[in-house]
Amino acid sequence: MEPTQQNGKTGGIDSAAHGHAAGADARERLMNDLKNVIGDVESWLHDAREHGADGMADATAQFEESLRTAKTDLLKLEDSMLARTRLAAQQANVYVKDNPWKAVGLGAAIGVIAGMLVARK
User: Nearest 5°: phi and psi at 9?
Assistant: First the structure.
């Protein structure tokens, strides 16, 4: 399926759906990595208790490596989310430029609904 063309730029529903799927995959990977880090830390602490000071130094080194990996993954996720947010903003900008009256109508409808909800309370 090809992305829609608007105003000479690629965008539309396909790329938005792809961005959403990529975000869900990135969140899932991050959650799995964090669960793995927590499990590893618990295991290392258990082993360190059994092996004394030598085990603690080894566990500390392994923990620091896992923490570095988790931080790197988190930074990658943050960069990815920022890139998708910028892309969504650009797509919204293109849509509004291509369909100004639809955008005005949508904004007015949202305003009316919000006004009715506020007045109702």
Answer: -115, 150
Q: How crowded is residue 92: how many other Cβ atoms within 10 Å of its Cβ?
A: 13
Backbone phi, then psi, for 19, in 5-degree steps? -60, -40
Residues with Cβ within 8 Å of residue 19, at least 6 apart in sequence: 84, 87, 88
Looking at residue 95, its amino acid is Y
Those residues whose C-beta lies under 8 Å from the C-beta of residue 91, and which sit 6 or more positions away, are 11, 12, 15, 16
> pLDDT, tens digit, for every residue of 37-91?
778 777 877 777 777 767 677 777 777 887 788 788 888 888 888 998 999 999 9
Which residues are paired to 6 by β-bridges?
9
For the question of whether the overall pTM of this predicted structure is more than 0.85, the answer is no
CA angle in degrees (0–180, nearest 5) for 17-87-22: 40
